[in-house]
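Sharing a chain and its predicted structure for anyone who wants a worked example. Both blocks are below, sequence first, tokens second.
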Amino acid sequence: MGLFGKKKKIKLEEPPKFELPPSNVPEIPEIKIKDISEAELKPVETELKPLTEIPETPTETPTEAKPLKPEIEKPIKPEIKGPIFVKITKYKGVLEAMEKLAKKIGEMEEDIGKLREIKMKEDEEIKKISEELSEMKKKIQEIERNLFSKLD
């Protein structure tokens, strides 16, 4: 009987996956300090606007359905000085993430289309109701004129 035996393998449970909500913050590329020149290290002056101002958005007519064209900025491409090696698992992970993003974008476009349809229907209903109210108002005014004209 030996003093040293085989170690028992302990299986740990995988922790639940946690997904952060999507943020509007763009990813910052990694920059090495050696690559930065002294001119780039000077502070940049920026003008900050107060958050209390709310920009006005123009109202669209409900009958016109405009396609949604998001403005996508072109990413900054770093200078590549040689071949880039990427692990296949990371590459596959990126491909899966891109597929999920494309699927989510498609779902969001469908949802926006449905919301536009609902909004158009609501606007039509509001228009019908306002027309009926104006007709009722005209009839009430006519009835009042007829009643009060006979009293005079």
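Comments welcome. The chain is about 40% helix and 0% strand.
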